[in-house]
């Protein structure tokens, strides 16, 4: 009888302890080396970890940067204040809080125990350089948030830095590309690119980095060879008057996709265009109009994403979400909605995008049919959603990062507010503590029973 009791207690202990042991496994990827993780900008990662329950990570100010999940940490920075945060991705516990000298629109990319983040603002100096007050990039220890080094630039570093083969690269509002030593911030190379880069986060594809720029006119898209440290090619867009320098390009199958605004035939409203270019030559392969509409403030041109040989993009000008064939530029379908600016994300045949009304919309990637939606708080632009282990993460201008399982999109009839859901699940961190205490008690009880049994013998 005693053997059965001990066996039963041991089994119960294992059942209770197992979730604790598995929770220590890495939830996110080991590295995050560029904007939205991959060149196609479809920020999806899966290592078969269980999805998280709804969770809220509270910061100090607006979030306009995409949250980054590496291992068991979530990293994100704030727009106006430059606050930088790391959270336990599972419990929502704040692990550290640091500070950048200016706005943070950049992602906090991760490599080898360090996070790298750009800072700066959108205001212009009298000499035409974009970014006032202090601008630059900094490296922090990912474990405790200690600032390891800071490299200052003349113009803003609002685009996300990129890491490649032992170097950190930034493009700036002072019309230069900088190559830095990630260990100490030492300048390794400085290249005059001739264009101001505002939010066009550089995209690393094979051995080249790609980004869009603005003034001085004409707007220009650049490719920079990372092996030779020289400009590979530059393509001019003489009809573009806005957006090319704001859009992080997406790249797949040797094709670059970006968007920008040109003047419509009426001479008043902008026309939103999408362009596909060859990665080797910069030749424009196709150009398609998304339509004409009213101008919007900031982030005027939508950011594309590539998934299964299709380009998905939302237009803030036409308030419409589109799917195009990557190779031909043929429009496959469109879905009218609200102003949207952020890059979308797709998984398992469903594409998700966020709008400025606080909704994340789920569509069938083949047909464009609505499959679900989720109401959050605040404006969700320009922070696009990412998916890690069937869990969606998205930053809001209400200062929170929201996380919730993709299964929430099947509950659209109730349209539960994520904030309320997060309150229901706010005991996640406490539950781990309770489980740990119970496990210890069970182990102690088993040890005492075994000790009594040995004494009787």
Structure description:
The protein has 457 residues and is mainly beta. The protein folds into 2 domains: 61 residues; 396 residues, Methylamine Dehydrogenase, Chain H (7 Propeller), CATH 2.130.10.10. The chain contains 3 helices and 34 strands. Strands 1-32-33-34-2 form a 5-stranded mixed β-sheet, covered by helices on one side. Strands 19, 20, 21, 22 and 23 form a 5-stranded antiparallel β-sheet that branches. Strand 21 and strand 22 form a beta hairpin. The protein starts with a helix and ends with a helix. About 9% of the residues have low confidence.
What tags apply to this protein structure?
457 residues, mainly beta, 2 domains, five-stranded mixed beta sheet, five-stranded antiparallel beta sheet, globular, membrane, transmembrane, Quinoprotein_ADH-like_sf
